[in-house]
């Protein structure tokens, strides 16, 4: 049994799982998303390059990835600090910060934010999607990648002594690339050594979550201690969703607050509304999956913050929970989704 066993590892050290309280399992507090910049339509270049202001907020809501400025969440640390204080006032306890290598993890800032706000912050180890992998990363063996991930959890990340408490979000594309496959295998090997939680960003195809799970399983990963993120933009058919759910991972609906007409990374996708997300949660609960569901907002651009007139990190607590209660999800089931499931997932074996 390791020193981590039975504990949750935050950026301020180990805590007892009972201290976490309500937990958003997939957020970002500081990151850059330049890797996924999506060029604006030719007629939109003016608004895309203009400074963010009131009159272009609706355009930005529809085209969040076509403004370079919007992709720099790392420039909003004062606003994020305020948001975290509001999150605490709304009854929030913990945030899992999913920024991994490739999208500018800043673990020193995470520690400062945790100290200044009292929110427990759990940082993520490992690598984001292939387009962000450096040449050096691509050349690494699975063993080398495993050692780095293990070290980020046991000794500290990015040259600090601040330790990660989860592996992920581990980025995968569709189809899954060779370099991503190595990272997935390394993730499974590191998880076997550490008994730690894992969280996955699947590619934008309904087959992607299952394909990732197969790679993790073949490498010895613990699927029961793994969160599959972004299901709300990935699996739409309820039959396929149940087939995936049977594999035993946590099922994450983490884009609460995101409502846009055209999802630029996959135009086939109709991004659901928050009402539809709640319906999907109610469906999974009715099918017996209340012990597997976790939820979040996945804030990763500036315009999702309340400073820019949007939902911030407290939308689920303030608005979505009351909605869930009117749609057949009981208070006890809400508490499982917000408290018990994240706690079980985040606790080291
Ligand atoms: C930071 C991140 O990966 N967010 C997910 C964006 S996506 O459009 O749902 O893939």
UniProtKB/TrEMBL annotation:
Keyword presence, Metal-binding: yes
GO molecular function: hydrolase activity; zinc ion binding
Positions of a divalent metal cation 1 binding: 26, 28, 169, 298
PROSITE patterns the record matches: PHOSPHOTRIESTERASE_2
SUPFAM superfamilies (alphabetical): Metallo-dependent hydrolases
InterPro entries: Metal_Hydrolase, Phosphotriesterase
The protein, known as: N-acetyltaurine hydrolase
Cofactor comment: Binds 2 divalent metal cations per subunit.
Source superkingdom: Eukaryota
Enzymatic reactions: N-propanoyltaurine + H2O = propanoate + taurine; N-acetyltaurine + H2O = taurine + acetate; N-acetyl-L-methionine + H2O = L-methionine + acetate; N-acetyl-L-valine + H2O = L-valine + acetate
Needed cofactors: a divalent metal cation
Family: Belongs to the metallo-dependent hydrolases superfamily. Phosphotriesterase family.
Binding site for a divalent metal cation 2: 169, 201, 230
Provenance organism: Megalops atlanticus (Tarpon)
Alphabetic keyword roster: Hydrolase, Metal-binding
């Amino acid at each position: 049994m390791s020193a981590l066993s039975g504990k949750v590892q935050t950026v301020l050290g180990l805590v007892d799982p009972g201290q976490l309280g309500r937990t958003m399992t997939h957020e970002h507090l500081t990151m850059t998303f330049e890797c996924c910049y999506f060029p604006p339509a030719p007629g939109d270049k003016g608004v895309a390059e203009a400074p963010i202001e009131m009159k272009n907020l609706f355009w930005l809501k529809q085209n969040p990835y076509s403004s370079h400025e919007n992709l720099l969440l790392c420039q909003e640390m004062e606003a994020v600090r305020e948001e975290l204080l509001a999150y605490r006032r709304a009854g929030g306890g913990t945030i899992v910060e999913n920024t991994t290598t490739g999208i500018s993890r800043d673990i020193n800032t995470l520690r400062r934010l945790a100290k200044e706000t009292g929110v427990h912050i759990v940082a993520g180890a490992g690598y984001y999607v292939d387009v962000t992998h450096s040449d050096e990363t691509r050349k690494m063996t699975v063993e080398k990648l495993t050692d780095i991930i293990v070290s980020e959890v046991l000794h500290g990340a990015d040259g600090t002594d601040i330790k990660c408490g989860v592996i992920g979000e581990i980025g995968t594309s569709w189809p899954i690339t060779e370099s991503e496959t190595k990272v997935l295998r390394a993730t499974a090997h590191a998880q076997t050594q550490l008994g730690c939680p894992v969280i996955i960003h699947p590619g934008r195809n309904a087959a992607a979550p299952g394909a990732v799970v197969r790679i993790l399983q073949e490498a010895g990963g613990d699927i029961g201690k793994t969160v599959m993120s972004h299901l709300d933009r990935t699996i739409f058919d309820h039959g396929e969703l149940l087939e995936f759910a049977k594999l035993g991972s946590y099922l994450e609906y983490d884009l609460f607050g995101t409502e846009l007409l055209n999802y630029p990374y996959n135009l086939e996708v109709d991004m659901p509304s928050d009402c539809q997300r709640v319906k999907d949660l109610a469906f999974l609960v009715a099918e017996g999956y209340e012990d597997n569901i976790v939820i979040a907002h996945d804030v990763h651009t500036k315009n999702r913050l309340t400073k820019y007139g949007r939902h911030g990190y407290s939308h689920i607590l303030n608005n979505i929970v009351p909605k869930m209660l009117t749609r057949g999800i009981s208070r006890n089931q809400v508490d499982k989704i917000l408290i018990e499931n994240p706690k079980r997932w985040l606790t080291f074996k």
